[in-house]
């Protein structure tokens, strides 16, 4: 079962939390569609800011958008001008007050979304896919990842028939629910078509209780003072 299922969805409510946090009622479908619109807009608007996740929390009159990024300076801008512009743009989508929290990713080499996007970007720049993948795996293992797996599918090197190749270092225990595995899928657009890139990163095993959504409800003071989310104890 664990081999076929999205590792993040498989761990929701166990060691992972949701990226949309609100009660929908009769407007559930409209809010889901609006969340999707917000995420697509943020990723398109901040395409150069290395954005990984967009977490949305709603109350009656306020929408809180928490952005996890490896380059917070690009989002904030000089004197906070850029983040103020983004807030006004999101207000037009939601028709509500918007609060934006920015959470810096200290080790982007261990973030599956950023790793997949980096590999895709290098392939689009005509760098060998094998070299890009092996460099990404080596960088993650240097940052104390317990295991990394990257799979690429499509017309590799312009081959007439599509195929898949996988590269792995360390262990990826997909059926162990306490294993903290990050997963992402990204696409590289080449002259021969699209290549699918899947990334699994094993960070450790979580023992005891863990806060499922540590970024939800976090104030700016908490983010700045403590450098982000509280970490659960992992066994190395």
UniProtKB/TrEMBL annotation:
One GO term (biological process): translation
This protein's UniProt keywords: Ribonucleoprotein, Ribosomal protein, RNA-binding, rRNA-binding
SUPFAM superfamilies: Prokaryotic type KH domain (KH-domain type II) (SSF54814), Ribosomal protein S3 C-terminal domain (SSF54821)
GO MF assignments: mRNA binding; rRNA binding; structural constituent of ribosome
Gene3D superfamilies noted in UniProt: 3.30.300.20, Ribosomal protein S3, C-terminal domain
Region (Disordered): 217-236
Sequence ranges assigned to domain KH type-2 in this UniProt record: 38-106
GO CC entries: cytosolic small ribosomal subunit
Superkingdom in the source lineage: Bacteria
Subunit structure: Part of the 30S ribosomal subunit. Forms a tight complex with proteins S10 and S14.
Function: Binds the lower part of the 30S subunit head. Binds mRNA in the 70S ribosome, positioning it for translation.
Homology family: Belongs to the universal ribosomal protein uS3 family.
PANTHER family for this protein: 30S/40S RIBOSOMAL PROTEIN S3, SMALL RIBOSOMAL SUBUNIT PROTEIN US3C
Protein name: Small ribosomal subunit protein uS3
Lineage of origin: Bacteria, Pseudomonadati, Bacteroidota, Flavobacteriia, Flavobacteriales
């Amino acid at each position: 079962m664990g081999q076929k299922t999205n590792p993040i969805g498989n761990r929701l409510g166990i060691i992972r939390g949701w990226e949309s946090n609100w009660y929908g009622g009769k407007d559930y479908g409209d809010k889901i569609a609006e969340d999707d619109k917000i995420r697509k807009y943020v990723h398109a608007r901040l395409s150069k800011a290395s954005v990984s996740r967009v977490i949305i929390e709603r109350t009656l009159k306020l929408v809180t958008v928490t952005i996890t990024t490896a380059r917070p300076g690009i989002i904030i801008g000089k004197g906070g001008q850029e983040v103020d512009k983004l807030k006004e743009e999101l207000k037009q989508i939601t028709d509500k007050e918007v609060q934006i929290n920015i959470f810096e990713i200290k080790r982007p080499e261990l973030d599956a979304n950023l790793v997949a996007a980096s590999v895709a970007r290098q392939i689009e720049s005509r760098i060998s896919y094998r070299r890009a993948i092996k460099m990404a795996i080596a960088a993650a293992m240097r940052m104390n990842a317990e295991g990394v797996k990257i799979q690429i599918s499509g017309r590799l090197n312009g081959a007439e028939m599509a195929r898949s190749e996988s590269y792995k270092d360390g262990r990826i225990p997909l059926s162990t629910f306490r294993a903290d595995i990050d997963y992402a899928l990204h696409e590289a657009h080449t002259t021969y078509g699209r290549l699918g890139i899947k990334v699994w990163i094993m960070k450790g095993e979580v023992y005891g209780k863990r806060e499922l959504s540590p970024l939800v409800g976090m104030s700016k003071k908490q983010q700045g003072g403590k450098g982000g989310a509280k970490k659960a104890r992992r066994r190395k």
